[in-house]
Design brief:
Blueprint lengths: L1 H14 L13 E6 L4 H20 L4 E6 H5 L14 E2 L8 H8 L24 E5 L1 E2 L10 H5 L3 E2 L2 H13 L4 E5 L24 H10 L6 E5 L8 H6 L8 E3 L7 H6 L6 H14 L4 E8 L6 H14 L3 E6 L7 H5 L6 H24 L5 E10 L2 E5 L5 E5 L8 E9 L4 E5 L1
Parallel strand pairs: 1-2, 2-3, 4-7, 7-8, 9-10, 10-11, 14-16
Antiparallel strand pairs: 5-6, 12-13, 12-15, 13-14, 15-16
Helix pairs in contact: 11-13
Bound molecules: iron/sulfur cluster.
């Protein structure tokens, strides 16, 4: 989502007559789009502060701005006081003010008029063939470890018309793969349901209806979404996974395999509900690849809780997991209510054990593709090799020409390993 916001910021800056540059030293405007999800991400921003001061000494007209989640959750500007040399400090939603602020700070920059809603700013997509489409921002769930509700505010959904207009415009300019983005993407609802097609087969769930509408757009060949919440994987959304253009993958964060921990996390689902949801998904689409997010070492997580996470991992037979060691985020409900009582060493030990399990499971699962054919969306080329993801979101590599970038190729897998499947184009 931050990448997609950066694409919007880039488009605003381009409209003002600015061009991108590879080196900070040659920039007239530097904007950092920040992430607050972990402590290390914020620490990196503080690390930049000295560089900004040095650059501003050399170039007094340089404008430095910080946006994204860090200013979003720093209402009292406590963190800003540690960031000397910063001219602009604003949450994502205020990016529409950028033209006015920048032209006040540097009169050489052309002011432009923008709509009030930042989501209506057209992103400058860096890749012609693949694009993110934000359908929702913010979240009402208040998982106790999470900064998103304070950084991005409460859930706000884009209208169906806006989303379809953007998707159609992307398709007409050559985009083939769309990734729908939202904090709880499957909780999206339409403010303009009258714009759904009369023959849309789904009746209850707006997100399932949206997937069907995007499936009808000619030239879009693949549709992906992230991140879904288990609570809203109802029968219609599960059925929509079988629509022809959907990738054969779903990312469904679980965070822990222990119902006690899930309760303290305020995830609003327990272990049994999650397992049941995975079962329903696999009943509908047996060969689907499934990914998840897991936090180890959350407040009060016992050895037994962690064992529950390992056993849930085995039961779900995930294809991939993004594993994190819990770090307290100031201002979150967990920071106020619970003690961070799992030691750093223990978090690391649990993370290592989970990572090892993931690598074993992934290596075993990837062997299934040996000798089989996968459809690869080629998005990179490097020294004779094409790379891209299969519909299962498995990274694949094969020898091929640079001209294949942006196309979908059928590849016979000859050498599957944990992180990459190698093969030959058919
Ligand atoms: S669902 Fe929970 S983890 Fe996800 S964005 Fe909302 S509060 Fe954060």
């Amino acid at each position: 989502m931050n990448k997609n916001d950066s694409e919007r910021i880039e488009s605003i800056l381009q409209s003002m007559g600015l061009k991108s540059t590879e080196k900070m030293e040659s920039a007239d405007v530097i904007l950092l789009n920040t992430c607050s999800v972990r402590e290390t991400a914020e620490n990196r921003i503080f690390g930049y502060a000295e560089t900004f001061l040095r650059l501003k000494e050399e170039k007094p007209h340089l404008v430095v701005g910080i946006t994204g989640c860090m200013p979003g959750r720093d209402a009292k500007q406590a963190m800003k006081s540690r960031l000397h040399g910063v001219d602009l400090y604003f949450p994502t939603k205020d990016m529409v003010m950028l033209p006015q602020w920048l032209s006040e700070l540097n009169p050489n920059l052309r002011p432009i008029d923008l709509h009030e809603d930042y989501l209506s700013v057209k992103p400058a997509h860096s890749n012609r063939f693949q694009a993110f489409v934000t359908i929702q921002t913010g979240c009402n769930h208040f998982c106790t470890y999470c900064v998103v509700p304070s950084a991005r505010g409460l859930e706000r959904n884009r209208s169906l018309k806006d989303i379809l207009d953007e998707a159609k415009s992307l398709a007409s300019s050559g985009c083939k793969e769309i990734t729908l983005l939202g904090q709880i993407v499957n909780h999206w609802s339409a403010s303009d349901p009258e714009n759904f097609s009369v023959n849309n087969p789904y009746k209850e769930n707006d997100f399932a209806k949206l997937l069907w509408e995007i499936n009808q757009i000619d030239d879009i060949e693949r549709i992906h979404f992230t991140a879904a919440h288990p609570l809203y994987m109802d029968d219609e959304v599960i059925d929509a996974l079988t629509l022809p253009k959907q990738v054969n993958y779903i990312h469904l964060p679980v965070q822990s395999g222990s119902s006690d921990v899930l309760k303290r996390m305020n995830r609003r689902h327990n272990r049994e509900f999650y397992l049941e949801t995975i079962k329903k998904i696999r009943n509908k689409k047996p060969d689907i690849a499934i990914g998840t997010d897991i936090i180890v070492g959350f407040s009060g997580e016992t050895e037994k809780d962690f064992e529950d996470t390992l056993s849930l991992y085995r039961a779900c037979d995930f294809d991939i997991s993004y594993n994190a060691q819990y770090s307290v985020r100031p201002g979150t409900p967990a920071a106020k209510a619970f003690k961070d009582d799992v030691t750093k060493q223990e978090k690391k030990r649990r993370w290592d054990a989970l990572q090892e399990l993931m690598e074993d499971v992934t290596a075993r699962k990837n062997k299934v593709y040996d000798g089989g054919k996968l459809e690869i969306f080629v998005d990179q080329w490097n020294k004779e090799y094409c790379m891209g993801n299969s519909r299962e979101m498995k990274l694949c590599r094969f020898k091929g020409d640079r001209s294949l970038v942006g196309t979908i190729q059928t590849v016979k897998i000859t050498s599957p390993s944990t992180w990459i499947l190698e093969g030959d184009v058919v």
